[in-house]
Amino acid sequence: xxxxxxxxxxxxxxxxxxxxxxxxxxxxxxxxxxxxxxxxxxxxxxxxxxxxxxxxxxxxxxxxxxxxxxxxxxxxxxxxxxxxxxxxxxxxxxxxxxxxxxxxxxxxxxxxxxxxxxxxxxxxxxxxxxxxxxxxxxxxxxxxxxxxxxxxxxxxxxxxxxxxxxxxxxxxxxxxxxxxxxxxxxxxxxxxxxxx
Length: 196
What we know:
Elements: E1 9-13, H1 22-33, E2 37-42, H2 44-48, E3 74-76, H3 94-97, E4 116-121, E5 124-132, E6 135-141, H4 148-154, H5 160-174
Parallel strand pairs: 1-2, 2-6
Antiparallel strand pairs: 3-4, 4-5, 5-6
């Protein structure tokens, strides 16, 4: 949406490179630097189209490099183990490694200056968090990340870990003070995978 004045947190999921105009990307940068929260999930479509090379906000994937299945499970990154988005009640972050593997991880060209790695699969950073101006940004690069809830249940694990990650990420991105209500409003009632 062009008007983000009434928005606290915006979620962008697996957008292709051409789905955002330069003006929209600049609007996102202004939104975040002015105090907004942005959660970006880059997956198969983002990787296929080379990510977004026009912004320091959005994950810059290596052009033409397909997602690959990670050989190692998700784990907490040392630098981000105390970040509010990944802080869980379990000790040591072992609950992440019990989740099913992602269906693919992207090759990030570089981690933005000031970004804190939150999650990784082996040496590959999968999620980062950073403050930009008055706002905040969480970037996730991996296919199937949003499906970990369902995949965990199918593998006999609790979906608690991934649900808490999404909940705590949105809270960190959007809540500045004492607790207040969070309202989520999708642009469409049903969003089918693969459609803009």
